[in-house]
Specification:
7 helices, single chain, mainly alpha, 0% strand
Length: 213
């Protein structure tokens, strides 16, 4: 049935070329209009309906989605409700976007290549495997450095940083408030954490043009 439909469609569209330059398409349209004017004008009507009417309806649907269910312009920092300084918002926004890139975009793309694996693997593992797979082979050599950087930053944010912040929290709980040495040690730990955060943020920014699938 699909073959019959395809043949009818090709006949109706006057057997268009698979690919052509602008000049070749112009020549094809001229020949189409001359040899099969009825089909040519029917195609013009069809294209008008698809491009004008259906496209307008589709744009209206996406206008609503972009403001309700698909709010891509809004970053969910995953922070608890409350007041946050700008530096914290920047930190969480950058790393959450990276986390979404790995666990949503890369995981989804991984499902195109390995649909059976996504049924048993977590989104996190699917995203990580996708980044690793895309660095293999000579054709993807240019992706090796940025994707390795993303994996490193992702691991830091989802694993290493939580351990560092827990160590700081534990140090605060153990500190009596009068032990100046312990307090200075905590300040040093916080300063080290901030510096590490900044290093990874800069690394993400360095390769941000590769954050797409």
């Amino acid at each position: 049935m699909s073959t019959i439909y395809k043949n009818i469609k090709n006949w109706f569209e006057f057997y268009p070329p698979g690919c052509a330059t602008l000049e070749e398409w112009a020549e094809f349209n001229t020949r189409f209009k001359s040899k099969a004017p009825a089909r040519y004008y029917l195609n013009e009507i069809k294209d008008f309906i698809e491009c004008s009417i259906f496209k307008t309806i589709e744009n209206g649907i996406w206008w609503c989605k972009y403001r309700t269910t698909h709010r891509y312009h809004v970053i969910n920092t995953r922070l608890k409700p409350g007041y946050y300084e700008t530096d914290d918002l920047i930190l969480h926004s950058v790393f959450v976007l990276l986390q979404n890139f790995v666990e949503i975009q890369c995981a989804h793309k991984y499902g195109w290549f390995y649909p059976k694996r996504v049924k048993v693997l977590t989104r996190k593992q699917c995203g990580i495997d996708y980044l690793k797979c895309m660095t293999r082979g000579d054709k993807n050599k240019h992706l090796e450095e940025p994707y390795q950087a993303f994996l490193k930053c992702y691991h830091y944010w989802t694993t290493e940083r939580a351990q560092k912040t827990k160590a700081i929290d534990d140090a605060y709980e153990a500190c009596s408030g009068k032990d100046l040495e312990a307090i200075h040690k905590i300040f040093d730990m916080e300063g080290e954490l901030t510096n590490t955060d900044n290093e990874y943020i800069c690394l993400i920014a360095k390769y941000r043009q590769y954050l797409w699938t």
